[in-house]
Amino acid sequence: MSTNRTPRRRAGLALAAALTAVAAFTAPVSQAAPATVQKPSPGAPGLGDPMFPLDGNGGYAIDRYYLDFDWQAPKTPFGATTTIKAHATQALSRFNLDFGGNTLHSVTVNGAPATTSRSGDELTVTPKSPLAKGSSFTVKVAYTADPTQTRHRDDAIEDYGWIPTPDGTVVYPQPNGARLIFPGSDHPSQRAPITFRITTPGDRTAVANGRLVSRTERPDGRVRWTYDSEQPLSTQLVQLAVGKFTVVESEGPGGLPLRDVVPDALVEPTAAYRSLTPDHLQWLQERLGPYPFDRYGILVGDTDLGVALETQTLSLVPKADLLGTKVDAERNMVHELTHQWFGDSVALKSWSDLWVSEGHARFYDRLYSEQHGGENFEALMKAAYKAHDQWRRDYGAPAEPTEPNLFKRMRYDGSALVLYALREQVGDATFQKIERAWVSGFKGRTAGTQDFIDLASKVAGQDLEGFLRPWLYGAKTPPMPGHPDWVVDPAT
Ligand SMILES: [Zn+2]
């Protein structure tokens, strides 16, 4: 955490201070800096998230990423450059990027070589000259990317980072694996648009979040693919994939462009389930209002990955999810699609707010499933209620996860149960109003647990603080409104 004691960084600071002094000395008297000009100081190495305090960075905000990948072959290192356009929110002597693994070659700030040091996942960059508060700047990081880097969690996530496939790669950045792919501000509250420029051999297709801007064949036979994310996104929701893909284009409700990205051999076997996306969109839009982005689609992962991921506008769904039963396939597809509203369009303020996005995704995937041949929704909620004290003890209350228990069942079934309780408390009509107010009011923004409590109270016209707080933070599960006969098993 306190990584600012290396001699190199001290040298950087001293240099920055010296340069400031020189600048002040040589400025003509009439242009002397006003007294309010801030003295440059280091940007914070992290945002202080309760679970991942060093994730994200302080002192600046990112306006856009440009990711250049010169992709070569599966599991093969390749040349990469990340260019970040940012603006300083304080006078900066130095700042940090989240970056893990890979081989760093050089960093420039506004074209001038910068001093760097690395410690854990923190890359500290000391520009040649300090950056004034409010000033725009450009950081360019050149590195060799290692597309075999993964990390592991002992919860629902399992392996994350780069996920190799037989003929290419997909990525699974959640929760904080984007730093293995590119340097940046790797926290869900930090959103910026991304331009992807991926060069591949001529027999591969590259895809990424958002819109294909251009596909250019080069004289050497390689192809350059440019994508624009269109909307800003959190790093944990980045998708970029390379493989022998067929891009299957169609239309959803209202002419929404749909594009599924499917390994060639899986196009036909997954076609029937993939064709259900328009129905899922229709069903969710009836409940939540308009789909929040300009396009959608499924990237079929040719991997043994156990879980799907709501990568923005292009959900990663492992092939096994689309080769089993219809009920299972639809439940998974609706889950990831629901996240486009909850977690993607309305982003997490902190990791403690994960219950909002996973709770909603689970709530709607089960509700849909019940109406389409799956299990009874109320029976599932009753079972979750029974286990809730045990989950509180093992995994923390819904809005009080601990780092190792972040993606455990409490954030899924246990948090869907909180929404079920809210619906029982305020009635279905008011609950739907709360849901719509949330996704429309916070569209394209970040929001947290307190925002949800405040909004629910406002829409319902009653103070729900006293109702929701014990559900979200208490050690004991409160009584379920409307179900006095429901019982909680004691935690053991
Ligand atoms: Zn989910």
UniProtKB/TrEMBL annotation:
The keyword Hydrolase applies. Its EC number is 3.4.11.2. It catalyses: Release of an N-terminal amino acid, Xaa-|-Yaa- from a peptide, amide or arylamide. Xaa is preferably Ala, but may be most amino acids including Pro (slow action). When a terminal hydrophobic residue is followed by a prolyl residue, the two may be released as an intact Xaa-Pro dipeptide. One of its GO terms (biological process) is proteolysis. Its cofactor is Zn(2+). The keyword Hydrolase applies. One of its GO terms (molecular function) is alanyl aminopeptidase activity. Residues 64-237 form the Aminopeptidase N-like N-terminal domain. Residues 1-32 form the signal peptide. Keywords: Hydrolase, Metal-binding, Metalloprotease, Protease, Signal, Zinc. Coiled coil: none annotated. Residues 281-471 form the Peptidase M1 membrane alanine aminopeptidase domain. Belongs to the peptidase M1 family. PANTHER family: PROTEASE M1 ZINC METALLOPROTEASE. This is Aminopeptidase N. It comes from Streptomyces formicae.
